[in-house]
């Protein structure tokens, strides 16, 4: 493939590397338009839960596409019903709405909570969210997010998202008033720097919600679908949220997300929520294949084995190079650096020859790892070896 400069210039700017174009991917490996291979430790921000082009997902989509691509958004279809059934069977939720992105699923969660507030809490509408959180790039989800700078660039914000501090229940309780309808959090803050919510904090949030009649919303767009070593991250804490959103891994690379709710909260009626592509059978067929893989015997055990390998490998590197340890849950982990050379390591990894590696540094003092859930032991070992060499190179 030739690099197409005219085409690149015709795109709105969404990348810092417009010259890097990938043309092929298989498992944990990507290939760019020059034929260079990259070991992928971010998998499109945890999207490709089963690596690039997983065979069973591709086959399920091709079969569905050849049978029926889109009956009409006005009707249910077989894969969307099957996927809704599988999600409800494996979670504490009763109802599912399929969205096209994590941001759209969260937008739906906010709407659902607000409607519930109109119906049951005299118009309460405020949703307490958290500093450094990330919920998407629609106007409401940006307003819900605790990302610095966004409050002014796209002003005015959507009203009603006071920000508390993660793992600090007093900071949450101080914000609750008669207009509060819900508390919304990522069980592991992803973009914020891979910071898990403590199980005790999750339990305190549930108690606070029960005490004041609030809904607990978990944004599992990044932490869900096996990423943290359980099917859904809330399951680590023993608490049952009222609403959960899913995205990224649920479609293994295609645009699919979900809004899940308990029956008692599920108050959307025909016309409240929806759109042309919601629940499209080709993407929900991908979701069914993903759920079947994740719930197959032994799959989550192997995710936890790889997570342990990654955690131990990062700890060993930390000890060797005098870094500040590692943290995370399952295969969503971060290496904490002792200086702000995360971006330099990401750059060096990409530029490495003959094979590169894709890393991510959501904050300059850390590297985030989100490999395929089915990454091989060998590929993960190789990634850790390359990382060791990169630290030596960048710090020499
Ligand atoms: N919520 C969380 C926790 C996320 O990590 C992301 C994406 N990084 C989103 C929502 C937004 O998802 P999408 O990009 O699919 O809209």
TrEMBL record:
N(2)-acetyl-L-ornithine binds at residue 137. Its EC number is 2.6.1.11. It is found in: Cytoplasm. Binds 1 pyridoxal phosphate per subunit. Pathway: Amino-acid biosynthesis; L-arginine biosynthesis; N(2)-acetyl-L-ornithine from L-glutamate: step 4/4. It comes from the Bacteria. It holds the Pfam family Aminotran_3. Pyridoxal 5'-phosphate binds at residues 134, 219-222, 276. PROSITE patterns: AA_TRANSFER_CLASS_3. Its cofactor is pyridoxal 5'-phosphate. The modification N6-(pyridoxal phosphate)lysine is found at residue 248. It catalyses: N(2)-acetyl-L-ornithine + 2-oxoglutarate = N-acetyl-L-glutamate 5-semialdehyde + L-glutamate. Its main location: cytoplasm. Keywords: Amino-acid biosynthesis, Aminotransferase, Arginine biosynthesis, Cytoplasm, Pyridoxal phosphate, Transferase. InterPro entries: AcOrn/SuccOrn_fam (IPR004636), Aminotrans_3 (IPR005814), Aminotrans_3_PPA_site (IPR049704), Class-III_PLP-dep_AT (IPR050103), PyrdxlP-dep_Trfase (IPR015424), PyrdxlP-dep_Trfase_major (IPR015421), PyrdxlP-dep_Trfase_small (IPR015422). SUPFAM superfamilies: PLP-dependent transferases. May also have succinyldiaminopimelate aminotransferase activity, thus carrying out the corresponding step in lysine biosynthesis. Homodimer. NCBIfam families: PRK01278.1, PRK03715.1. Belongs to the class-III pyridoxal-phosphate-dependent aminotransferase family. ArgD subfamily. This is Acetylornithine aminotransferase. It comes from Paenalcaligenes hermetiae. The lineage of its organism: Bacteria, Pseudomonadati, Pseudomonadota, Betaproteobacteria, Burkholderiales. The gene is argD.
């Amino acid at each position: 493939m030739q690099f197409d400069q005219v085409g690149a210039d015709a795109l709105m700017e969404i990348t810092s590397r417009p010259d890097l174009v990938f043309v092929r991917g298989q498992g944990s490996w990507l290939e760019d338009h020059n034929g260079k291979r990259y070991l992928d430790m971010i998998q499109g921000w945890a999207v490709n839960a089963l690596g690039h082009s997983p065979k069973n997902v591709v086959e399920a989509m091709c079969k569905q596409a050849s049978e029926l691509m889109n009956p009409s958004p006005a009707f249910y279809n077989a894969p969307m019903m099957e996927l809704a059934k599988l999600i409800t069977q494996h979670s504490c939720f009763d109802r599912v709405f399929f969205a096209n992105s994590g941001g759209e699923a969260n937008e739906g969660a906010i709407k659902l909570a607000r409607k519930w507030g109109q119906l049951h809490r005299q118009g309460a509408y405020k949703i307490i969210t958290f500093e450094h959180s990330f919920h998407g790039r629609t106007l409401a989800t940006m307003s819900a997010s605790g990302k610095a700078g966004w409050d002014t660039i796209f002003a005015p914000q959507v009203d009603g998202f006071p920000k508390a501090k993660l793992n600090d229940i007093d900071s949450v309780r101080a914000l609750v008033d008669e207009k509060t309808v819900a508390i919304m959090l990522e069980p592991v803050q992803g973009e914020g720097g891979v910071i898990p919510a403590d199980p005790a904090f999750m339990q305190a949030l549930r108690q606070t919600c029960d005490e004041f009649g609030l809904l607990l919303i978990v944004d599992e767009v990044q932490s869900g679908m096996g990423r943290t070593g359980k099917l859904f991250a809330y399951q680590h804490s023993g608490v049952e949220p009222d609403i959960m959103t899913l995205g990224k891994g649920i479609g293994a690379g295609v645009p699919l997300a979900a809004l899940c709710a308990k029956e008692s909260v599920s108050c959307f009626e025909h016309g409240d929520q929806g759109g042309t592509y919601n629940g499209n059978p080709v993407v929900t067929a991908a979701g069914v294949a993903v759920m079947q893989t994740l719930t197959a015997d032994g799959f989550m055990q192997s995710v936890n084995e790889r997570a342990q390998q990654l955690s131990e490998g990062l700890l060993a590197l930390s000890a060797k190079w005098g870094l500040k340890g590692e943290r995370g849950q399952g295969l969503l982990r971060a290496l904490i650096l002792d200086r702000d050379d995360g971006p330099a390591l990401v750059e060096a990894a990409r530029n490495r020859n003959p094979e590169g590696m894709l890393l991510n540094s959501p904050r300059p003092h850390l590297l985030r790892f989100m490999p395929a859930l089915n990454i091989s032991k060998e590929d993960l070992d190789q990634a850790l070896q390359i990382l060791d060499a990169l630290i030596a190179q960048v710090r020499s």
